[in-house]
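User: Can you fold this complex?
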Amino acid sequence: MGDSRRPTIKTVAARAGVGRTTVSRVLNGSPLVSPEARAAVMEAIAELNYVPNSVARSLVTSRTDSIALVIPESESRLGAEPYFSAIIRGVSLQLATTRVQLLLTLVRDQRELDRLTEFLSARRVDGVLLVSVHRDDPLPGLLQELGLPTVLAGRRSPDEPLNHAHSDNVGGATEAVRHLLERGRRSIATITGPLDMEVGNSRLQGWADALAEGGIEPDDALVAPADFTEEGGRVAMRALLERRPALDAVFAASDVMAAGALAELNRRGRRVPDDVAVVGFDDSIVARHTDPPLTTVRQSVEEMGRTITRLLLQEIAEPGSAEKCVLLPTSLVVRDST
Amino acid sequence: MGDSRRPTIKTVAARAGVGRTTVSRVLNGSPLVSPEARAAVMEAIAELNYVPNSVARSLVTSRTDSIALVIPESESRLGAEPYFSAIIRGVSLQLATTRVQLLLTLVRDQRELDRLTEFLSARRVDGVLLVSVHRDDPLPGLLQELGLPTVLAGRRSPDEPLNHAHSDNVGGATEAVRHLLERGRRSIATITGPLDMEVGNSRLQGWADALAEGGIEPDDALVAPADFTEEGGRVAMRALLERRPALDAVFAASDVMAAGALAELNRRGRRVPDDVAVVGFDDSIVARHTDPPLTTVRQSVEEMGRTITRLLLQEIAEPGSAEKCVLLPTSLVVRDST
DNA sequence: CCACGTGATGGGATCGTTCCCATCGTGGTG
DNA sequence: CACCACGATGGGAACGATCCCATCACGTGG
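Assistant: Here's the predicted assembly.
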């Protein structure tokens, strides 16, 4: 045995006693090939252990059968933030039935952004998934210019032009705060996500909406912006307690920030939920492990991953055919922190 | 303005008034090109906004400038298990200075394994990183056969033939148990990782070694195998308490399992560390968030990611040139659970 | 009986690079 | 002055697939 060289389509054709084109047809499932020829080709393929060279295929079809998942990690959140892991799982799950491969790109700084830009300009992927986009993110615009199929998880503004999926952030946040009101809380603070992200604004909006519903006038001193990190949550909590020592509830725009807030409350001897009730957002794993376990707004991040992938594949297959925007529902999970 | 078509090397050559080859030389940094020609080419590239087609390049060089990171996720651990996120961060960090891209492949079942096998046979990557390998994993063997550069995080046995890096699991575990002995504990149980993985065995070995050092005979009833999951840790803890109600310490082979054990101990009203001391392994984020915070053996998983990537790149550049085996140190981090 | 449509087939061109080799000029040397 | 070595250059072939188009056999209808 053994050519050290991998067999090519020519080898297979010779072996099967047919032309290259016929082999190619069998490979691509064309109906224009006789049963005998097909059988011969299949046999030759099996005998030679032939695997088509996808690079050569890519060159002529100009498709790569791969997509990129871009994760901005300036705050080194992958790992601390279970969100990204869940997205990855969902994406991978949705790709499992296809032959499409996943390229993971963490973008930490300008240099890496430049490298990514070049990579995308070279069209080394068929499409791009963008996660955690900030308002002034240069990437979405670039992708739009390049005409590279793109789907966002989340959106930059309510009139996002790019295809995207997003959770019902306003609705989820409203429900959370409504729940606090029902529990009799009146001085409800909020720790927000980054306000240059739509997700940050929406959850803040939901907080304000629920208060308005309850006839309570929003108090700016009860709003502390943070950055989705635990440390940010801690700092924000500290600031809130200084400004409004009498607050009796906090709605944090993520579980991780809520965990930080809880730590700070514990440190100061405020009892949760007796003195201060806390609600998070995401229903990530941390929510079940805080002390006490966290009431939170569930969003299925894995489902988000699946959805944006589905949209992207659709958009790649037939540009313009995918839904522009998909809204994913949220639901309140009540635990012991409220 | 403009051609809708992307410029090719020919376009650039024409624009610069030189031949294709000269452009190619400039692109690849060959010294055999005059300063004037080089300048002309650079200018043409900038004007045309030319980006080389890497697929075409791959076809002739038969290099893809990408590597695959394979994560077996049968237990859907990505996310629950911070290990994988940390590996990804490390790998990505090490790749940042190169032009190599990262392909992430989660393998959940046989079908996905088949798909991956075909993918690797087609040599669509230059090398492979393998994480969390089990003793009877078919992938390492396949890769060896294919002659595809491969590096493992961890190893299958102490005489692993493939390039790999591994933490000092025996040493770390020994140190942990020694620490428990110093704290005066005598009935020290262990919750192991999967015993069909070397990491599981080594940490168990370390436990036994330390006991031997302390003149204590290992008791089989104090060994409960689990699977690195929190639920597994909980179940194992339950079994241990049933078999040896008087145990006064537990060494868990991962923080996540330790968290499960803690939960079970709390549920049963055993005080930690007063009644039972607990040590974990990994120093992952969960270790700082359990109640009480976990004493644990630190291993730098991110460093592991960087190391295996470095080895792989080296092995790709010059097969056989990389170190066969790199040992990464561990260190004990003492918190409140002991 | 012949022209014609149709299914099956294969050869040539092509995708955009890199690599091999031939060519050309030029300055140094015997 | 002839020759040579060497740096610079460019054209042709190759990488391994797909796609376009010409060809061919064959059955059918006029």
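The longest helix of chain A spans residues 301-317. The mean pLDDT of chain A is 93.
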